[in-house]
Amino acid sequence: MELIRGQHNLRPHHRGCVATIGNFDGVHLGHRMIFDQLAEQAARLRRPRLAITFEPQPQEFFAGPKAPPARLMRLREKLLALDGLGIERVLCLKFSHSLAAMPASAFIEDLLVERLDIRYLVVGDDFRFGHRRAGDFAMLIEAGQRHGFAVADTHSHILDGERVSSTRVREALGQGDLELAARLLGRSYDMCGRVAYGDQIGRTLGFPTANIHLLRRVTPVYGVYAVMMSGPGLQLWPGVANIGHRPTVRGTRAQLEVHLLDFQGDLYGQQVKVDFLHYLRPEQRFESLDGLRRQIKRDEQVARAYFAARGIRIPPPPSLLPQGEENSFLPAPLPQGDGRSCTGF
Questions:
Q1: Which residue range forms the structural domain that includes residue 58?
Q2: Do 237 and 278 fall within a single domain?
Q3: Structure confidence at residue 331 (pLDDT)
Q4: Which residues of the chain fall short of a pLDDT of 50?
Q5: Does residue 213 belong to any structural domain of this protein?
Q6: 78 with 153, same domain?
Q7: How far is 168 from 263, CA to CA, in rounded Å?
Q8: 46 and 121 fall within a common domain
Q9: Are residues 141 and 221 both part of a single domain?
Q10: 142-149, long-range: CB within 8 Å, 24+ apart, which pairs?
Q11: What is the pLDDT of residue 343?
């Protein structure tokens, strides 16, 4: 997949494509409908697929110093998801005051027609664009008739009588309903990041953790979870994750910490993916490290029971396996996973 950062990096060979526009936060089932329709038109017209997205997301830009809605995906995670869907190109536009002030007509004429020469455009049924959100589906239809490109909208994907949306995914995650979030996304909710050095408190408590910086202003999940972690040097491995500010040790920023059950090895510097499977409890403050240690032990026991009930085995340490059987105890495939890894961007 080719990432094009900004309009100024568009080249003549980028003209002539089928395209869609949106934030695509979470790349949920509603977004998948759009990309499925885009794939059909790309095959029919024999043109590459282009996804146009924004960084920061408009809601983050307009929130200013206030906390914006929790972001489901960092840009890197979104690119991985789009690459997994076979999208050939992504145009990432910097959302700024100038872009926010651009008239809808200029967005169509300058970008969609002159720079991209789009042949087919697919948008969601609630898509609005341009200064003061003046642009809508009717404006795109009229522009397409003048410039020779077709426009189609995709109706909302309905699940359990309600529209699938990024907002609904955030609400499910905020309520600890990981199962509903997975149904809306079509996969388990996950986060990607690089394992970094921490303050080693987990190791001193007897529960070493992989520390992953979130790199987002607001996270949609807080608390303790049963998770599966994977990466280039790590098969799917069960664990317990805490995501929050670590009030017991006076943490100052939100951080993701994952304790892999019965794991032995060094993951520092590796890009990993953490799939959130089941909510265990909210984050809480303990009066002492001993209190924290006892609670972590209880969390581990609950997580082990959860994995056992679903047939997800925890591999024994490689040193205890006969030679040649190191891979015979790998965990079962991740439920509702999409096979994405965190490599490539």
A1: 2-163
A2: yes
A3: 42
A4: 248-249, 320-337
A5: yes
A6: yes
A7: 35
A8: yes
A9: no
A10: 143/105, 143/108, 143/109, 143/112, 143/113, 147/113, 149/112, 149/113, 149/118, 149/119, 149/120, 149/121
A11: 57
Span 308-324, pLDDT tens digits? 999 999 876 555 444 44
Claim to verify: residue 140 and residue 252 sit in the same structural domain: no
Q: Is residue 179 part of a domain?
A: no
Q: What pLDDT, on the 0 to 100 scale, is given for residue 339?
A: 52
Model pTM above 0.70 = yes
Whether the Cβ atoms of residue 47 and residue 302 lie closer than 8 Å to each other: no
Q: Enter the tokens of residue 120.
A: 């087919």
pLDDT value at residue 235: 86
Answer for the pair 82, 1: CB distance below 8 angstroms, yes or no: yes
How many domains, the chain?
2
- At 198, which amino acid appears? G
- Could you tell me the two tokens for 264? 């032995």
The number of residues in the chain equals 345
Examine the domain organization and report whether 101 and 196 are in the same domain.
no
Note the pLDDT tens digit of each residue in 166-175.
999 999 999 9
Other beta carbons within 10 Å of 53: 20
